[in-house]
Amino acid sequence: MKNVTCIDDLRTIARRRVPKAFFDYADSGSYGEYTLRANRSDLEAIKLRQRVLVDVSERNLATTVMGKKIAAPLILAPIGLCGMQHGDGEILSARAANEAGIPFTLSTMSVGSIEDVAEGTGKPFWFQLYVIRDREFSKSLMSRALAAKVDTLVLTVDLQVLGQRHKDIKNGLTVPPEFRIKNVIDIATKPAWLWSILKGKSKTFGNISGHVPGMEYVNSLAKWTQDQFDPALNWKDVEWIRKYWPGKLVIKGILDIDDAKNAVKMGADAIVVSNHGGRQLDGTSSSIAMLPRVVDAIGGDTDVLFDGGIRSGADIMRALALGAKACLIGRSYIYGLGAFGQAGVAKAIDILEKELSVTMALTGVNRIADIDGRVLEGGAPKKKAAAKPKAPVKAKA
Ligand SMILES: Cc1cc2nc3c(=O)[nH]c(=O)nc-3n(C[C@H](O)[C@H](O)[C@H](O)COP(=O)(O)O)c2cc1C
């Protein structure tokens, strides 16, 4: 891995090693991918402030999220079908996160089940919940997570219906992969991937298969989601989950000030400012554009986490400067997983941490808690002064 020096290198290698249908599934955004691109371009546009002659010899990336210490302001995001990038992908990613001292989040739509990850790591992890129509099944997922010693539930609220990814349809994405001529030729050129999948514990949706009919073979993820995900999901369901779930509750997929305020009112311990990595509402704002507004709206009592477009340590710095407590990473670690399995996830984490450490040095900070708008050129964006109520115009007599 000597020549792997940045996340983009991991992406290039993953693209060679992972079958096209699964690489495209991870890499793509919904529809015209406007929001996917905005997540990156808006981050890149934020200029950092170079500072010199500050003693930065005591740099430390450790921080706290919801009162718990973590080794760096990084969390592995929930990724559906993570285990199709590499066999046992969820277990391997969770192990890499454990070794780095940061949380791993298991998706409801994972290949490895809650129990597989608990057994394969022996350490607590976070679990992401999608609420499907059958509420009893959602309840059973929460009970299974509790039994597996999951302490943090991440409730994703931005996927009541599925944003379309054109490539998934064109590639005929099925789980497990369908052996059509086109796919067989592609897979035949990826023997290391095939071997890892064949050796892997699970080859379909581990949390759901055997519990929900029709999940042994999913010939259309979009169709299944459409049938099973509940468009009627609303804030009352959040209230129900808050009552049922005794641990920490994180609400993921917030991009709006009013929604953020509601999430806090409902008792969320943290929220994730996120547009699902540009995979849902195409044409909505980038996550980074909305972050300072959400932070501003809910004040400092609830941790605000961030995701969307993080590909470097400088990006993490930008999000922290705008008020995020920590960043979730999706594709950055998924590329590492597809490229080299557990070692690739560890490499992705290492790259981001080293880049963040150097960025801290060159902006003159030693501690995560010291990062704020002062590390940005021009400081943090100015708060808009509240508009003064206008005096009523008196009607002329
Ligand atoms: C391949 C893929 C699958 C995803 N699956 C889920 C999921 O099952 N649950 C969820 O809450 N978010 C899911 N997400 C969204 C991520 O958790 C995260 O919000 C997003 O990847 C952040 O953007 P980034 O990839 O640019 O870092 C997925 C993202 C990708 C790329």
Q: How would you sum up this structure, described in words?
A:
About 2% of the residues have low confidence. It contains 16 helices and ten strands. The protein has one domain: Alpha-Beta Barrel (TIM Barrel), CATH 3.20.20.70. β5, α6 and β6 form a beta-alpha-beta unit. The strands form two sheets. An eight-stranded parallel β-sheet has the order 3-10-9-8-7-6-5-4. It has a two-stranded antiparallel sheet with strand order 1-2. By secondary structure, it is α/β, with parallel strands linked by helices. It is globular, with a radius of gyration of 21 Å. Flavin mononucleotide binds next to α2, β10 and α15.
Number of helices: 16
Give the count of structural domains. 1
Bound molecules: flavin mononucleotide
Give the oligomeric state.
single chain
Cα distance spanning the termini: 82 Å
Helix/sheet category: alpha/beta
Low-confidence stretches: 384-389
> Helix coverage percent of residues?
40-55%
Any idea what the shape is?
globular
List the main descriptive attributes of the protein structure presented here.
globular; eight-stranded parallel sheet; TIM Barrel; 42% helix
Which helices and strands, and how do they pair?
Blueprint: H1 7-17, H2 20-27, H3 34-44, E1 63-65, E2 68-70, E3 74-76, H4 89-100, E4 105-106, H5 114-121, E5 126-129, H6 135-147, E6 152-156, H7 166-170, H8 181-188, H9 191-199, H10 221-228, H11 235-244, E7 248-254, H12 257-265, E8 270-273, H13 287-298, E9 303-306, H14 313-321, E10 326-329, H15 331-340, H16 342-363
Parallel strand pairs: 3-10, 4-5, 5-6, 6-7, 7-8, 8-9, 9-10
Antiparallel strand pairs: 1-2
Helix pairs in contact: 1-15, 4-5, 4-16, 12-13, 14-16, 15-16
